[in-house]
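Chapter summary example: a protein plus beta-D-glucopyranose.
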Amino acid sequence: MTTIQLPESLKWGAATASYQIEGAAQEDGRTPSIWDTFSHTPGKVKNADNGDHACNSYHLYKEDVSHLKELGVDMYRFSISWSRVIPAGTGEVNEKGIAYYRNLIQELIDNGIEPMITLYHWDLPQVLQDAGGWESRETIDAFQEYANTMFKEFGGQVKKWITINEPWCASFLSNYLGVHAPGKQSLQAGIDVAHHLLVAHGKAVQSFRELVPDGEIGYAPNVSWLEPYSPTEKDQAACRLSMMFQKEWFMDPVFKGSYPEELVQLFAKHHAEVPIEEGDLEIISQPIDFMGINYYTGSLGRYKEGAGLFEVEEVPLDERRTDIGWPIYSEGFYKVLCNLHETYGDVPIYITENGACYNHEVEDGRVNDQERIEYLKQHLTALERAMKAGVPITGYIVWSLLDNFEWAEGYEKRFGIIHIDFDTFERTRKDSFYWYRDTIREQQFSL
Ligand code: BGC
């Protein structure tokens, strides 16, 4: 039996996001976000599911924190629902919304768990969408105002912050591919939203330095790994460009102060361009304290004429996929971590999300999710190798603490280490929960 020993310095966490778990969508002054609108629009989400009740964590947060304590995590990553704390998007602050997060933060601290706040995990207030959403520069100002308010409210107690979760999903998946809210299908809209999200990120970092001088701030882009199917120039180029769309497009501006030229040229061929205004790139490239990385999947990429923007098709490595259909590729996790380190240098990295979808149900009070444990083992092995190779990884945060509202997939797809009965909100710890608890306790596991 092989034992994988994780370095003492590695911190552990679990993550969730507001719209996916809170429920209480119409309580205590919260107004709709773009995800309320989208999920209530027929045909957008599987089984017409929506986040009205989700895991009911708004009411059950103490139970959730007790599970975090049992797990022994150092950190809990959660997000704030903007429309719960500032229902009109800008202006008046909703004290009841603030009270919910204040209580949650206090409960975490009382239980020895460090809060890590994500400011934007996709739930833009609908009123702001109606005024143009992230396609409009006014939303940047609204975000900065919201961020400042949160820094002032919670910055005394909360020292770890993430501005934007997965800007690729919030821009291109949502505005070019139309899969997520608000469901647009325009390349130009995707580019505009991506740029404005990055400027908003930079502006929030600027105010953070003044308002929470002793805190750490970063953002959490999602990456995957496409390994060229063959060494031919065409396969190599297709993979490079396709990864650039997710990775360099969102990282070069932050770490190098420029967009990747190859992609700028490609977009220009499609009559789309980045709406850069004077000073934007300086704002975006404010130094940050860490890079959050969300990693789930990867595969082989092969050139195919006419296949999408980058003329690439994905070729699965083998039959292994999680229940959401994503290929399992832990080697890609290792490769992408090394690649990020090589490209962007010694920026500390938190793995802000990694986990697997398996839809096991409760049987005799137990959830036997051995496949999830295997997935986590493989990815933590890749992480340990990356750390040995010199990648400065400071923390690992599993997605997700709870089964939850899996966006366009609704409740059918389960990522939690705790099972949720979405009728009764009963929580059942899965086998992976106990495995993760033991791994954290021992700082090692067996393969
Ligand atoms: C998101 C989560 C989501 C998970 C699984 C990430 O894209 O940040 O909100 O549930 O991956 O799809």
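Key point: The pocket of beta-D-glucopyranose is lined by residues 17, 20, 165-166, 169, 222, 294, 353, 399, 406, 415 (CB under 6 Å).
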